[in-house]
Amino acid sequence: xxxSLIKYIKLFIYSWVxxxxxxxxxxxxxxxxxxxxxxxxxxxFDQVLRxxxxxxxxxxxxxxxxxLFKLLDWYRSCKDKKV
Length: 83
Fold this sequence. Notes:
The protein is mostly helical. Helices cover 90% and strands 0% of the residues. It has one domain. Helix 1 runs antiparallel to helix 2.
């Protein structure tokens, strides 16, 4: 029981870190393109906060979907064994 709980906590942390890093990377790419077009590099602090917030939301959604699909598979396999 405790081992599976630790796996799910790791899944949440990994998905949060991935989503936050991906959103920060997207913001950096957009700022770099803006730098080449206008000559001014703008990466506002609000963009960082937005990336962190939506990274937590997106990472949580990914983790909850993975847990839900695993539980559905477990339920279906138990249901098939009974029939």
